[in-house]
Amino acid sequence: MLIFPNINYKMNEEKNTIKSSFEEIKQKITKIEILVIFLMIISFILFFYFSFSKKENSSTSTETGVSINYGELYLKIKQLPIEAEAVFVWDMYNQKEIFSKNKEQQLPLASLSKIMTALVASDYEDKNLIVKLDKEKWNLKNLLDFTLISSSNSGAAAVASAIQSISNENGKNSFVEKMNKKTKELGLKQTYFLNESGLDIDEEYLSGSYGSARDITMLFDYIIKNKPEILEATSYKKLNLISEDKKIHDAENTNTAINDIPLVIASKTGYTDLAGGNLVVVFDNGMMRPIIVSVLGSSKNGRFEDVKKIVNIILEDKNNFEK
Fold it and tell me: What would be the CATH architecture of the domain defined by 70-322?
């Protein structure tokens, strides 16, 4: 009798082997899929993180289509040999800090005080106020221009005295009180004034005013946005200003670096024994983007070099601006 092999058994065995292999392959594929999905999630997280980080370190102007690489600018400015004790660099268009060093430190302002003097006094321009200075009569606007561009202490004192007089205020420091009131209105927390000119009250111990690099920058920011005509004269190297007595006065800008910085919108110097060298410059980098550079506590000549170094770095478009 012929004995035939158990075909069904063989077929079932092979079927089970194939099924087992298929299950193993399926499990491997499932593991690979899980790994791929996991890697995709990690990649997405990393992409999102770096994209967000890049966005935080740059800002794009919708008008110019240009973005500043703030991180790169910060590092470049940080590497500069700067004398100033405090520095604040501000992008007015984006309202964003580019660089800072001791930005909240309260330091003597010296003649930077005259910016607040001019702002407070500007409220009286429509009264056709005539101010006397050295036996001469001046239109208030012309005298303010003269005072700012030449940093005239006597001009600031004459303006303060005239306004105090017409305001019927007998208090000795009433004009200075107006300056400090405006300071609070603008939220300048580190700034206060003891006189209208910024002259040291005591050459060793007490300045005529104090403030921070950030505060003085925000003051410029406010004026340029709301009353730019106040600072217009400070963008020129020299101006001929006429008093009401028809006398012509040549007013030369105390900012000796005015011609070394392109497209200056405004500037103001300050220097006393206590303050050292102070300087604020507002310039347009050529793309409708005003930049404010403020340095406090530098040296008499170092303040100009400090600002020029910072401006030159910002104006290096190829390195600091991205299309």
Answer: 3-Layer(aba) Sandwich (3.40)
